[in-house]
Specification:
Number of strands: 30
Shape: globular
Oligomer: single chain
Number of helices: 6
Distance between the termini: 64 Å
């Protein structure tokens, strides 16, 4: 798996590190003049770059600029949305440029990876409707070129700019703990918790009491660590399963307490936040409205690829490619030899048949 990652990384490139900001727990992608907060629920990308600001649904050039393409303001140049380039540093610390369509902002800069409602062009910096993102515990990567084993396949519905999925139930030890069928459920990369409506939250809270978890104020705290937290399964349509290990849905506070990241939802919807995304490689295919999800060690492989980048790119990978080329040449030569011997044998058989006829 590691070798496959290295080869894929080197040959495909366009793989960029993202890192978590502890104060907000959001993941960010750095570019030449700032950093973009990764947001799976924003249809637009927002950058602090200058441009001509035009109100959407206005017609300054005779043709109305629709709000479905940018909202509330559009940054235009020659009557067109700005399609610019930003400079990113890939996982091998090499600079690459990527195109991006954006609107200008004086507030937080956002990498919008949500659904573009009716937009003619995707807004993300890869100008692609198929891309890959991997969230580790504190590090990860985003790419438009990567190989995903696609262990789980989830269909999603377009709910504004959100990826709405069909979560059927939550199971522990093959036992249904929470029936979530019928609830609106969507993925949220900026949410540090898994949010459950009140009834579903109470069922989850009560069940986790068997594992030494108690509610303390607004949070679920592990009081008895000797019992160990279980693996939790999220069951989606077509019986697709996503497993959450203990490290994904719990973490330690500064004061040493261990918190379980299930929380009450204030909007009566289920939000699958970062605990759901942790250590998952996710391919988002906006063309077919699918999420492909595989368990993946985003954290360690990201770090190791950086540390070994020069050695891999300049020694190991060229050597592997040379070996593969040599192997292909030998294989082709062997195939040609077999084919030549087959033709010679056919000629001998033909000659023998002609001699017998004479």
């Amino acid at each position: 798996m590691i070798i496959l990652f290295f080869i894929t990384s080197t040959l495909a490139s366009h793989i960029y590190p993202i890192s978590q900001i502890q104060a907000t727990q959001n993941f960010q992608l750095e570019y030449e003049s700032g950093s973009l907060t990764v947001d799976l629920n924003s249809e637009m990308s927002y950058l602090s770059k200058a441009g001509d600001k035009i109100r959407c649904n206005s017609a300054p050039f005779g043709e109305q600029i629709q709000c479905q393409h940018c909202s509330p303001d559009c940054i235009v140049e020659n009557a067109q949305l700005i399609s610019s380039e930003i400079t990113l540093v890939d996982i091998f610390n090499e600079e690459e440029t990527e195109s991006i369509i954006y609107t200008s902002t004086n507030e937080s800069e956002i990498l919008g990876l949500g659904l573009q409602r009716g937009a003619k062009y995707p807004q993300n910096p890869f100008v692609s409707k198929v891309f890959h993102i991997c969230f580790g515990y504190t590090r990860g990567f985003v790419s438009r070129e990567f190989k995903n084993p696609n262990l789980s396949e989830l269909n999603y519905k377009a709910n504004e700019s959100n990826y709405q999925v069909d979560l059927r139930m939550i199971k522990v030890n093959d036992e249904m703990v929470v029936d979530t069928y019928g609830n609106i459920t969507y993925v949220d990369s900026k949410e540090p918790f898994i949010l459950l409506p009140d009834n579903e939250y109470i069922m989850m809270r009560d069940y986790l009491q068997e594992y030494g978890v108690e509610e303390e104020g607004k949070y679920l705290i592990v009081k008895d660590k000797s019992k160990g937290l279980p693996t939790i399964e999220l069951i989606f349509e077509k019986d697709e399963k996503i497993k959450l290990e203990r490290d994904a849905y719990s973490y330690r506070l500064i004061d040493g307490r261990e918190i379980v990241t299930f929380y009450r939802s204030k909007i009566n919807r289920i939000k699958l936040g970062l605990p759901f995304l942790t250590q998952q490689l996710i391919t988002i295919d906006q063309n077919n409205q699918k999420l492909f999800i595989s368990k993946y060690n985003c954290q360690d492989q990201f770090k190791q690829s950086q540390q070994n980048a020069p050695y891999l790119k300049h020694i190991v990978i060229p050597l592997i490619l040379m070996c593969l080329t040599f192997y292909c040449l030998l294989s082709q030569r062997a195939k040609n030899g077999v084919k030549r011997r087959q033709l010679e044998q056919q000629e001998l058989v033909k000659l023998k048949e002609e001699e017998e006829q004479i």
